[in-house]
Amino acid sequence: MNAHPSTPALTLLLSKYPKTSGSLFLVYNDVVHGEIKFLIPDLLFLRPEIALAQSWKDVESVDLGEQCPRGAIKGRRPNTDSNEPVYVVPCALAETVSYAWLQSAFKSLSEPSEIYLGIAADDSSIVYYKISSGIVKPPV
């Protein structure tokens, strides 16, 4: 991961939050490049992603701080009229995501109207869920 071109943009957050570094690295590269690079014994494969990807503009990493200890991604999707930034909060498929966790992510990002969860699996596939502000926890 240290030799990858995106490492300089993520170095501080990767070292500050090592438990979430894998999902941050995968989602960041999906958003910026629209491709995930797989290193399998001496072979480098490129796989185009269809999801939310495809060369976002003005992409930067964001530290969510102690309330939600991880990095997030802020940027603008291409070919849209909106000037509003879009936020993606990466997480691993194995992580537990709670209502309180989502609330802290929204609060750390200064209450945007929506965020995307970029859920990364062990096989490097990523699924995005759009979460709107003001969601109501269902009764148990």
UniProtKB/TrEMBL annotation:
Lineage, highest ranks first: Eukaryota, Fungi, Dikarya, Basidiomycota, Agaricomycotina
Regions that span the bilayer: none
Keyword flag Ion transport: no
Domain tRNA-splicing endonuclease subunit Sen15: 53-138
Domain of life of the native organism: Eukaryota
Residues forming coiled coils: none
GO biological process: tRNA splicing, via endonucleolytic cleavage and ligation
Record-given protein name: tRNA-splicing endonuclease subunit Sen15 domain-containing protein
Signal peptide range: none
Molecular function in Gene Ontology: nucleic acid binding
Family per record: Belongs to the SEN15 family.
GO cellular component: nucleus
Keywords, alphabetical: tRNA processing
InterPro entries: tRNA-endonuc_su_Sen15, tRNA_endonuc-like_dom_sf, tRNA_intron_Endo_cat-like_sf
Keyword Repeat annotated: no
